[in-house]
Design a protein that fits this description.
The protein has 14 helices and 31 strands. It is an alpha/beta fold. Keywords: Hydrolase, Nucleotide-binding, Signal.
Length: 596
């Protein structure tokens, strides 16, 4: 072994040993909700604290998100919980700028889905407003997420590099969109023809001799949750293999401190953002894909910033060498940010792993708004107002989008069935994917429209994907298989329960496993048992009709009829079935019986 290699390894071993010696006594002194430990007495000039601020899954939420999408659950010292209003880039900017104060070595990173499925104020302009906001936030780097591919790789490249939209042109007269000031990292997304990453695979932050490398990946299963057109010509590689590959590349370049930005995540045992998911032991309170990923990513990576599941957690999960490593996620929609301290050892160029501390913080709305963000929102809101403020219906109360079956899921499925029957009176039922419902319909006014009034902008926030409502023929047996795919195969670990139109009922037995969770004998349409040999006319959005979200059986339908835009179908239904005098009642969400 060359002497210089031995020298570096010895320093890393000594640094880790020093950290371990102090970890137990100092852990109790950490702030509430924080994880990790701090090193012992500082060696002047040797150790440098590097602040890592991170967030994920912003989804273009520039304005404070409404309803339950704009709140977080906070655990109190007595074990009770309360909800706190959170989010909005005017507040996020203030919180991040305050957090950076006194930290000359500070990096801001994100873990994907910065854009896509965005509210109208951003989505109407192909998310250019969000890129402008992220530039103002001084975001240093982000990984891509699955939603960065909603409009395809070419549009993602435009958001990175700038240029006017190929169809809609420039939104500012005489001014070309400049693109992102930060790199999007896509290490595991390659061109099928060349085999090369479509964007940078990694990036290195440098300051006064301190070097921290970042590797960015999205989940390997991205093609299953994005329209086929959005990922055409692309290949998505294994997250662990890709990160391990580029960690070696960074090490060969002399970068020993490495952070992975991974658009894949887990589910903590509690919805409280400050829940201790290291209780009773390290990583015991979290499940999901990120656990297996974290256990197999090379020990050369010092921390994992994750996303995708919209959950909040700060956990330590052992790496393959059995050493605890920080794994974080800051929920979604800009409601939280994570503040992680990485203690950099100048002697080794590596992070003193046991010195890493981390905690999630609420983006409260009690701080002053950042004036530059207010100006940005005002500019784009003014431009979108003529479209966004148009009333399209009335509701009697908040129609939520949470739960196995949600009231809003029922409403949307009914709207799609109504649209399908306007095209084909023989349509039998409609199925809607829960991931396509992005926000609740709030009763409280979002502007000057009044309580209970649904505006086009609010409806757009609920269904922003511009899917079509498609009709296909499925046999009864195929329909049963599709329902079973909610809880088996690709969806067994994290079920995706389809929202169903009026008339379709069945029982979901969560005490069982896999496909057996669907009680086949209970599946009925208008009270009649499903006939496996009969043909049913089924409406879904175009994403599901293409087999998206792991519903391969829905992609096998025949006699395809492509209908109209799903948002237009929703608007038509709500307009026809509600008025100021007779608002739409909150659906009961009683079509799927759940046994637990």
């Amino acid at each position: 072994m060359p002497p210089n290699v031995r020298h570096r390894r010895l320093h890393r071993i000594l640094a880790a040993a020093a950290g371990l010696a102090t970890a137990g006594t100092l852990l109790a002194a950490l702030p509430a909700g924080a994880h990790g430990s701090r090193p012992g007495p500082q060696h002047p000039g040797r150790f440098q604290d590097v602040q890592l601020l991170s967030f994920n899954d912003l989804h273009g939420n520039l304005e404070p998100p409404a309803g339950s999408s704009g709140r977080v659950t906070e655990r109190q010292e007595d074990g009770t919980t309360k909800t706190v209003d959170a989010g909005g880039v005017e507040y996020l900017a203030t919180h991040l700028r305050q957090a950076r104060t006194g930290h000359p070595y500070s990096i801001t990173a994100a873990a994907g889905d910065m854009v896509g499925a965005s509210p109208l104020i951003s989505g109407l302009f192909h998310d250019e407003p969000t890129i402008h906001a992220l530039n103002k936030l001084d975001l240093d780097v982000t990984s891509v997420g699955n939603h960065e591919f909603d409009e395809g790789a070419r549009e993602l490249a435009r958001l990175q590099n700038g240029g006017c939209h190929p169809t809609d042109g420039c939104y500012d007269d005489g001014e070309t969109f400049q693109g992102a000031n930060f790199p999007y990292l896509a290490a595991n997304v390659t061109d099928e023809k060349t085999g090369k990453p479509i964007l940078k695979p990694y990036w290195v932050w440098k300051k006064n001799g301190v070097k921290v490398g970042f590797i960015g990946v999205t989940l390997e299963g991205t093609p299953n949750i994005v329209s086929a057109e959005g990922v055409k010509g692309l290949k998505f590689g294994d997250e662990v293999e890709t990160i391990n590959k580029y960690a070696k590349v960074l090490q060969r370049q002399g970068v020993q401190s490495i952070v992975a930005l991974i658009h894949e995540g887990g589910v903590p045992a509690s919805s409280a953002y400050n829940y201790d998911c290291d209780s009773p032991g390290a990583g015991d309170g979290i499940s999901g894909p990120i656990v297996d990923i974290a256990k197999h990513v090379t020990p050369a990576v010092d921390a994992l910033v994750t996303g995708h599941t919209h959950q909040a957690y700060v956990c330590t999960i052992d790496d393959p060498a059995g050493r605890p490593r920080m794994v974080t996620s800051a929920a979604s929609f800009g409601r939280l940010y994570t503040d992680t301290t990485l203690t950099y050892d100048r002697a080794t160029g590596d992070i003193v792993r046991t010195a890493v501390t981390s905690a999630n913080h609420v983006v409260t709305r009690t701080v002053a708004k950042a004036p530059d963000m207010t100006d940005l929102i005002t500019k784009w809101k003014t431009r979108s107002a003529p479209v966004a403020s148009r009333p399209i219906g009335y509701i009697a109360g908040e129609i939520g989008n949470t739960g196995t079956e949600s009231p809003l899921g029922d409403l949307i499925a009914d709207a799609q069935l109504a649209h399908a029957r306007s095209l084909d009176p023989e349509a039998d039922l409609a199925l809607m994917n829960p991931g396509g419902i992005r926000a609740p319909l709030t009763y409280a006014a979002s502007g000057g429209e009044g309580d209970g009034v649904v505006t086009y902008g609010e409806a757009y926030t609920v269904q922003p994907f511009a899917n079509t409502v498609n009709l296909v023929n499925l046999t009864g047996a195929q329909l049963i298989t599709a329902l079973q795919q909610q809880v088996s195969g690709a969806n067994e670990a994290s079920p995706k329960i389809l929202q169903v139109s009026k008339g379709l009922t069945y029982t979901l037995d969560l005490t069982k496993a896999g496909a057996a969770r669907v009680v086949v004998d209970s599946v009925r349409l208008n009270g009649a048992a499903i006939d496996p040999a009969a043909t049913y006319r089924v409406a879904t959005n175009s994403f599901l009709a293409g087999g998206g979200d792991g519903f391969a059986e829905l992609g096998k339908g025949t006699n395809v009829l492509v209908g109209g835009d799903d948002l237009a179908a929703f608007e038509t239904y709500l307009t026809a079935n509600s008025s100021a005098a007779s608002p739409y009642p909150v659906p009961a969400a009683d079509r799927i019986a759940v046994l637990e």
